[in-house]
Design brief:
By secondary structure, the protein is of the alpha/beta class. It has eight helices and 14 strands. Helix 7 packs parallel to helix 8.
């Protein structure tokens, strides 16, 4: 990827957070639009795509009282491969029939004969399979019949969900993201897995507000609880009647609010891992959504 710097917000705590405060911090960070989070002892570092996002996060965390718990500071750090270094020892992860593997741990062909292997270079986007919400989405996709389906992956990150959808039988998959670096990462995932962009699967720099997006049979949205609550109506509008939404990126405490935002859908399945949740929702055929 091209050279760049990352706006960083650091929180330095004088004493370790207990479980309750740690969960509260993660929920507040969830609303900050971070690109990546790093925890090193009593120091929590939040990485952002833009300085304006970091500045907004400073204001948000201040409004929620975090300066009384930690010292907040900001800086810009050079991209010296920190994401790759921080994930350099990540092993392959298996979720059902799918194996998501970094380049250094791709299973041998004879060991993966009955598996769907997706090679992903770790980067700042979710999608290595090591985050609970990615695993939940992969599990949910395998429970659906995707044969012949059109799939839209919102906030595609590494592109792993779009690639998984095609490997599971989808006729086409479109991954969209408003972060150019995420699209670069996703296109790298296509190349590594022998998929030509523009064929069955594409990655495009587009936002959720792009009105040219077509309604799909399945929409994946592994975002944040806040975004799903805000954009529930728009995500539903991108589902054909009877289509499924695979949603994650939110905690069990946020689940009710996410569910309420998707009022044109019924819950078909719920998947949980630790305190993270994924929903599979089905859009009701009789309900139209603006």
């Amino acid at each position: 990827m091209r050279a760049r710097t990352w706006p960083v917000l650091r929180l330095v705590f004088s004493t370790p957070l207990d479980d309750e405060w740690h969960e509260r911090l993660l929920l507040d960070v969830d609303d900050c639009g971070v690109s990546a989070l790093d925890e090193d002892g009593d120091i929590v570092s939040l990485f952002f795509a833009a300085a304006s996002d970091r500045d907004a996060a400073v204001d948000l965390l201040a409004s929620r009282g975090w300066p009384s718990q930690a010292t907040l500071s900001t800086e810009d750090v050079a991209d010296e491969g920190w994401a790759a270094r921080s994930q350099a020892n990540l092993p392959a992860i298996r979720v059902g029939r799918i194996v998501v593997a970094p380049p250094w741990d791709v299973p041998a062909p004879d060991a993966a004969a009955d598996l769907l292997v997706i090679e992903v270079e770790p980067s700042t986007g979710f999608g290595t399979g090591h985050h609970q919400t990615t695993r939940l989405c992969l599990r949910a996709l395998q429970d659906l019949d995707l044969r012949g389906a059109r799939v839209l992956d919102i906030g595609t990150g590494s592109g792993v969900l779009a690639v998984a959808a095609v490997r599971l039988g989808a006729a086409e998959a479109l991954g969209i993201d408003n972060d150019p670096d995420a699209i670069e990462s996703a296109e790298d995932t296509l190349r590594r897995n022998g998929l030509e962009a523009g064929a069955a699967v594409r990655m495009e720099l587009r936002g959720l507000d792009d009105r040219a997006l077509l309604a799909s049979d399945v929409v994946c949205a592994n975002l944040t609880g806040a975004l799903l609550r805000q954009q529930g109506g728009r995500v539903q509008a991108l589902l054909v009647p009877g289509g499924r939404a695979v949603l994650s990126g939110f905690t069990e405490d946020e689940a009710r609010w996410v569910r309420d935002a998707f009022d044109a859908c019924d819950v078909e399945a719920t998947h949980e891992e630790e305190f993270w949740v994924a929903y599979v929702l089905r859009r009701r055929a009789a309900t139209s959504q603006a």
